[in-house]
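Hi support team,

I submitted a single chain yesterday and got back a structure, but I'm not sure I'm reading the C-alpha coordinate output correctly. Could someone confirm the output below corresponds to the sequence I sent? I've pasted both exactly as they appear in my results page.

Thanks,
R.
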Amino acid sequence: MTMDFKVADKKLLSSVKTGQAVSFGLSKDPQAGYVISHIEAAK
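Hi R., thanks for writing in. Yes, this is the structure output for that exact sequence:
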Protein backbone atom coordinates (compact mmCIF):
# COMPACT_ATOMS: atom_id res chain seq x y z
CA MET A 1 0.00 0.00 0.00
CA THR A 2 1.26 3.50 -0.71
CA MET A 3 -0.01 6.86 0.48
CA ASP A 4 1.38 10.34 -0.02
CA PHE A 5 2.07 12.47 3.06
CA LYS A 6 3.93 15.72 3.48
CA VAL A 7 6.90 15.74 5.85
CA ALA A 8 7.02 18.22 8.75
CA ASP A 9 10.79 18.64 8.25
CA LYS A 10 12.55 17.34 5.13
CA LYS A 11 15.67 16.63 7.22
CA LEU A 12 13.79 13.58 8.55
CA LEU A 13 14.16 11.93 5.15
CA SER A 14 17.96 11.94 5.27
CA SER A 15 17.98 8.95 7.65
CA VAL A 16 16.13 6.55 5.29
CA LYS A 17 16.71 5.21 1.78
CA THR A 18 14.28 4.69 -1.09
CA GLY A 19 12.50 1.35 -0.73
CA GLN A 20 13.54 0.88 2.90
CA ALA A 21 10.90 -0.31 5.39
CA VAL A 22 10.20 2.41 7.95
CA SER A 23 8.17 3.21 11.05
CA PHE A 24 6.73 6.69 11.24
CA GLY A 25 4.37 8.90 13.17
CA LEU A 26 1.85 11.43 11.97
CA SER A 27 0.67 14.67 13.44
CA LYS A 28 -2.18 16.88 12.25
CA ASP A 29 -1.23 20.27 10.86
CA PRO A 30 -4.13 22.77 10.64
CA GLN A 31 -3.14 23.80 7.10
CA ALA A 32 -1.39 20.78 5.58
CA GLY A 33 -3.49 18.01 7.14
CA TYR A 34 -1.59 14.96 8.38
CA VAL A 35 2.20 15.22 8.11
CA ILE A 36 5.02 12.83 8.99
CA SER A 37 6.41 14.04 12.30
CA HIS A 38 9.07 11.34 12.86
CA ILE A 39 10.50 8.48 10.81
CA GLU A 40 13.06 5.73 11.38
CA ALA A 41 14.19 2.49 9.80
CA ALA A 42 11.95 -0.44 10.75
CA LYS A 43 13.46 -2.92 13.18
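A quick pointer for reading it: The beta strands are 6-7, 22-29, 33-41. Let us know if anything else looks off.

Best,
Support desk
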